[in-house]
Design a protein that fits this description.
The complex is a heterodimer. Chain A is an alpha/beta fold. Chain A is built from 15 helices and ten strands. In chain A, the strands form two sheets. Chain A has a six-stranded mixed β-sheet with strand order 6-7-8-3-9-10, sandwiched between helices. In chain A, helix 6 runs antiparallel to helix 7 (272-287). Chain B is an alpha/beta fold. Chain B folds into two domains: 8-325, ABC transporter type 1, transmembrane domain (ABC transporter transmembrane region fold), CATH 1.20.1560; 344-545, P-loop containing nucleotide triphosphate hydrolases (Rossmann fold, 3-Layer(aba) Sandwich), CATH 3.40.50. In chain B, 64% of the residues lie in helices and 8% in strands. Chain B is elongated, with a radius of gyration of 34 Å. Chain B starts with 13 loop residues before the first helix and ends with a strand. Classes of the chains: A alpha/beta, B alpha/beta. At the A-B interface, helix 1, helix 2, helix 3, helix 4 and helix 5 of A face helix 2, helix 3, helix 4, helix 7 and helix 8 of B.
Chain lengths: 565, 547
């Protein structure tokens, strides 16, 4: 996912963090090197004045290391949080383009883990991957330079051992991560998902005694995850050993080259302690490299999963140059004309709806009936501009494909079978339809949707929280809340997909009559299974199940038969 | 991402170690490795000091010093080996503990009454939360052990070599945990609130994503981008203001460590100038002290570094124990019902949900071997009544009796085994339609029976893939999978009671007729309760109850 990190000030902040981090580590190195020099020089018992510079620097480095590190952590964390903000909104923005037809590809548990864990994973990459890497490079370069100036051979040994640690350790770590991350990634998603469905379906699983079976399934997935983690651990341990072995080589190498150099006089004996202590400090950031590389690999996998979302094709892209609705013609709103409409869901082999003809005059209400799978809900999705289609679908003479999806949805409202009830208050759930609506308008919409008694019985009224997925309300109430929301939106054309599901006949009739009254003068399509009461719709269109998928659906005779009522 | 330090007194959660199988031997391994590591650290420092002073002050040649150099290589090599063994042992122990804990908590959750518990948050706790314990077991705990052993060994060695330096370290070392505790106390409530707000943030996203189609239909989806931006922005500001204080504990630690090394260096240096330490041994002692001083602080620094990573796990552990401390559902009494269709009686039962007016009082008798259809208006508590018979809702007043025995006196497990219950929204699991139907008979059902049930319920073809969130099937198909499930259960377990909640919602008239015929067949010789107002369902009723 490309997020413009520079423009938002994230990258410069991270850069500043890396510089501060490197300066802090260099302070540590300088503290040890100067201390070594101080002690060696002091042993020669020079006048104490000669040592004052060393004494002062030692104290300075003692203070600067901690304070620089503190500044680095604040700067880099702030940068990472800013980056995450951008990333999260960018991913969500993409999901908005894909919903709903492009979305069912993912299970909700997986999608949730993508949005939260994967975005966090990418953020971890900056803090625990990129930053330590940058710090290590700066510190290692400085240490090798210093060592080479003092004794070129020791510099070469240090460079070689750092190079070995910096390549071999991370290589081991990333090799391990590569083989294991894929397994943990999918096992984690499966685990999240299994736990979620187990918790959501608890009562039915317990009632049928299948809870143990469900738990066993989850344990099996968990075990897969455990083994994958164990594999990463073993190689991480190896990576750690490689780093420490390289450190041993650097220290022993410094002494091995330094001791003869002192004897030969090519190295001042005072500096032998310095070249021995420099590797100890220089290796601190280098030893952190395997973990940084591992973190980067994990983050890459997170990034890959996010890219899957961003590269998913939009089911119905908005046209490049959308047409706009003209001013309303003198005779009021224009009709909807549907001719030979065929609609196929993305990834589906056969169209879910074929060859539909329907003209909806302004102010006309049409009922659509038909068996399950006849494409009733597909028609609703196409009318909302959620799906591409073949044939013609015109709003007041303009082809729907030429319009922006949002422009279509500003005119057409949908009350769908599975409308979502958000985990917030009743009022906020309704105001999604019309943010400015006052409490009286909300209450009126609820009454029209047949919720008068229910609403009057709520202790907290509009402030009642509806709970996760509307669990605190019954199926019938949930449907009517969605209906109230739709009435409140006050769209020109309304598509009601089974507004009467979960309602008893008397209640359904009452609700439908209320709705019909509320919709007077507006166009509406009401999708239903059961016969509608007198006066609710002007006519009924029956849809049949689509032809078997083997036949070429486009050659099918018209499936829709309009009957007057 | 970044975790904050909850209070320091929680660093060593005894319950976590008690509950965790394999944790005690693992700690023993950590102690053994820690002790060996300490020995390597001290030996390494001594050898380096000896080599440098030997060459510089003693004028010794490489040949003379070769045995010491070889010993140094061996000691440093051993330290590397110890580190990798530690890492591997840590991860295998952590993985075992996590898996056991997850299963234990999930199994307990299955026995807890349904409250308004939030599935998204609980799932995050069980997956992300428990995974976060990894850092605690694999990284933090071994460092904690090292932090207890290394400073002691180092201090003893330094005290033996040069007491003044040991005194400097001994005086500054305790400052670190003291400041840590003070800062931890300050950030404690904030850190707990932060986990809460992380969970809330997660739930908020899940809710938004689930509701995307609805938001988009109302043209409100894009507006939520701003809401996410302001939510995460506020989250960042809150977290950063807390981090400014929380990072202070690391600041104190780093300052104490590096300043005391500086003080040791200067003190020893001044001593050398004044001849307090002289000769090759003097230099060797001075260097030994200098090299050892930072080693005393290193494990503590690592504890701090890994503590941040493990704090999230500890906060999660706290919440896991809170779950385990909740009392499970009552398992009922010891009575059992007979193996024939019973009479089901509700006498003046009233159910109440918090924050709502109580549901209307119900009295009804479902005669044995008959189909009773509940036709009460929407929201009158039909589903609640059926769920109560399976023991998931308890009436606020009134009585429920099966064959004259109060429900509370019945063995709940046995009772559930005598019931085939189809809730309004059947739970789906990942797998095929057949896998889903098979769940009805956990002991295993034969394939022919599964196929027959699928056919009778008009459910989708057996091999079709279904996912747990219901994608892959329509609402009507999901309902028919639920129906196939209970037809299979009724058949295979010969359950005398059949409970169906809106079995024909989302179905067209033809399918409804076919499905009802299967239900009627299955109803023979069973006590059947159906919640529905559909005329076709009422047509097969022996008795209708309305309230």
């Amino acid at each position: 996912m490309k997020v413009t990190l520079w423009r938002t000030g994230v990258a410069p902040r991270l850069g500043l963090g890396a510089v501060l981090g490197a300066l802090s580590q260099l302070s540590a190195l300088a503290l040890l090197a100067v201390s070594g020099y101080l002690i060696s020089r002091a042993w020669q018992q020079p006048p104490i004045l000669y040592l004052m510079v060393a004494v002062t620097s030692v104290r300075l480095f003692g203070v600067s290391r901690g304070t620089l590190r503190y500044a680095e952590r604040l700067v880099s964390h702030d940068a990472a949080f800013r980056g995450l903000e951008r990333l999260r909104t960018a991913v969500y923005g993409r999901l908005v383009r894909l919903a709903p037809a492009g979305l069912p590809v993912w299970r909700s548990g997986d999608l949730q883990s993508r949005l939260i864990d994967d975005v966090d994973g990418v953020g971890d990459r900056w803090l625990r991957g990129t930053l330590p890497l940058a710090t290590a490079v700066i510190v290692a370069a400085a240490a090798v330079a210093l060592q080479s100036v003092l004794l070129p051979a020791a510099g070469a040994v240090l460079a070689a051992s750092i190079l070995a640690a910096a390549t071999l350790g991370p290589a081991l770590a990333s090799w391990a991560a590569r083989i294991a991350v894929r397994t943990t990634g999918s096992a984690r998603a499966d685990l999240t998902h299994g736990v979620q469905s187990c918790l959501a379906g608890r009562e039915e699983l317990v009632a049928s005694g299948a809870d143990r079976l469900a738990l066993d399934n989850i344990s099996a997935t968990d075990d897969r995850l455990r083994r994958a983690h164990a594999r990463i651990a073993w190689t991480a341990g190896l990576g750690e050993a490689v780093g420490l072995l390289a450190l041993a080589a650097a220290v022993c190498g410094a002494l091995y080259t330094g001791i003869p150099a002192v004897a030969e006089g090519t190295l001042d004996g005072v500096l032998l302690a310095v070249i021995t202590l420099v590797p100890l400090a220089a290796f601190e950031p280098v030893l952190a490299l395997p973990q940084a590389v591992q973190q980067t690999a994990i983050a890459k996998e997170c990034g890959r999963r996010l890219t899957e979302i961003t590269e998913m094709p939009e089911p119905r892209p908005d046209p490049a140059e959308p047409l706009e609705f003209g001013p309303e013609p003198a005779g009021g709103p224009a009709p909807i004309e549907i001719k030979r409409l065929s609609v196929t869901w993305p990834g589906a082999g056969a169209p879910a709806l074929t060859g539909l003809d329907l003209t909806l005059q302004p102010g006309e209400r049409v009922g659509i009936m038909g068996p399950s799978g006849a494409g009733k809900s597909t028609l609703a999705a196409a009318l909302m501009g959620f799906l591409p289609y073949e044939g013609s679908l015109r709003f007041g003479g303009i082809e729907l494909a030429e319009l922006d999806g949002d422009a279509v949805r500003a005119r057409v409202g949908l009350c769908s079978q599975n409308a979502h009830v958000f985990d917030t208050t009743l009022a906020e759930n309704l105001r999604i339809a019309r943010p400015g609506a006052d409490d009286d308008e909300l209450a009126r919409a609820l009454r029209r949707a047949g919720l008068r008694e229910w609403f009057d019985g709520l202790e907290e009224g509009l402030a009642t929280r509806l709970g996760e997925h509307g669990r605190a309300v019954s199926g019938g109430e949930r449907g009517r809340i969605a209906l109230a929301r739709c009435l409140l939106a006050d769209r020109e054309v309304l598509v009601l997909d089974e507004p009467d599901a979960h309602l008893d006949a008397a209640c359904a009739d009452r609700v439908l009559r209320n709705v019909a009254a509320a919709l007077e003068g507006k166009s509406a399509i009401i999708i239903t299974h059961r016969p509608l009461p007198e006066g609710v719709v002007d006519r009924v269109l029956r849809l049949d199940a689509p032809a078997p998928p083997l036949r070429d659906a486009r050659n099918d005779p018209l499936l829709g038969v309009a009957t007057g009522m | 991402m970044t975790a904050l330090s909850p209070p320091r007194e929680r660093t060593f959660d005894r319950r976590l170690l008690h509950r965790a199988k394999g944790a005690t031997p693992y700690i023993a391994v950590c102690v053994a490795i820690g002790t060996a590591t300490t020995a390597c650290v001290i030996a390494g420092a001594w050898l380096i000091a000896r080599l440098v002073s030997g060459a510089f002050a003693g004028g010794q040649s490489l040949e003379e010093l070769a045995p010491s150099l070889a010993a140094l290589a061996a000691v440093l090599g051993a330290r590397a080996l110890l580190a990798s063994v530690q890492e591997a042992a840590a991860h295998s122990a952590a993985a075992g503990v996590k898996t056991a804990l997850r299963r234990q908590v999930l199994a307990h959750l299955m026995r807890l009454p349904s409250t308004d518990r939030n599935t998204g948050e609980t799932t995050a706790l069980l997956v992300r939360g428990i995974d976060a314990l990894d850092a605690y077991f694999a990284r933090y705990l071994p460092q904690l052990v090292l932090a207890a052993i290394v400073p002691v060994g180092v201090l003893i060695t330094m005290a033996a070599a040069y007491p003044a330096a040991a005194l400097i370290v001994a005086l500054t070392l305790p400052l670190i945990p003291v400041f840590g505790i003070l800062i931890g106390l300050y950030t404690k409530t904030h850190a707990e609130r932060r986990w809460q707000s992380t969970a809330t943030l997660a739930h908020h996203f899940a809710d938004l994503v689930a509701g995307l189609p609805t938001l988009k239909a109302f043209g409100r989806a894009a507006a939520q981008v701003d809401s996410i931006r302001s939510t995460t922005g506020a989250y960042r500001k809150r977290t950063m203001s807390l981090l400014r204080v929380a990072f202070c504990s690391a600041l104190v630690l780093e300052l104490a460590a590096s300043l005391s090394v500086a003080i040791v260096a200067v003190t020893v240096g001044v001593q050398l100038v004044h001849g307090g330490l002289s000769g090759q041994i003097g230099l060797q002692t001075a260097l030994l002290v200098l090299i050892l001083a930072p080693e005393a602080y290193l494990p503590l620094r690592n504890v701090g570094a890994h503590y941040h990573a493990s704090a999230e796990g500890l906060a999660a552990a706290e919440r896991l124990f809170a779950v385990l401390d909740q009392r499970p559902e009552a398992s009922g009494g010891a009575s059992r019902i007979a193996d024939r269709a019973p009479v089901i009686l509700f006498r003046r039962t009233v159910f109440a949900y918090p924050g709502r007016e109580p549901l209307p009082e119900v009295s009804l008798t479902a005669p044995p071997g008959r189909i009773t259809v509940l036709t009460a208006r929407s929201g009158a508590g039909k589903s609640t009544l059926l769920a109560a018979l399976v023991g998931f809702r308890v009436p606020a007043s009134g009585a429920i009796e099966i064959d004259g025995t109060p429900l509370a006196e019945l063995d709940l497990t046995a009772l559930r085994r005598s019931i085939a219950w189809m809730p309004q929204r059947p739970a789906l699991v990942d797998g095929t339609v057949a896998d889903n139907v098979r769940l009805a008979v956990p002991d295993g059902a034969d394939e022919a029976a599964v196929a027959a049930a699928i056919a009778s319920a008009r459910a989708p073809e057996a091999g079709r893939r279904v996912s747990a969130d219901g994608s892959g099937v329509s609402a009507g198909e999901a309902a028919r999978i639920g129906l196939a499930r209970i037809l299979l259960r009724a058949e295979a377990l010969d359950t005398p009671i059949l409970l169906l909640d809106e079995p024909t919602a989302h179905l067209d008239a033809d399918t409804e007729q076919a499905v009802l015929a299967s239900i009627e067949t299955a109803a023979t010789g069973r006590t059947v309760l159906i919640a529905s107002h559909r005329p076709a369902v009422r047509a097969i009723a022996d008795l209708e109850v309305h309230w």
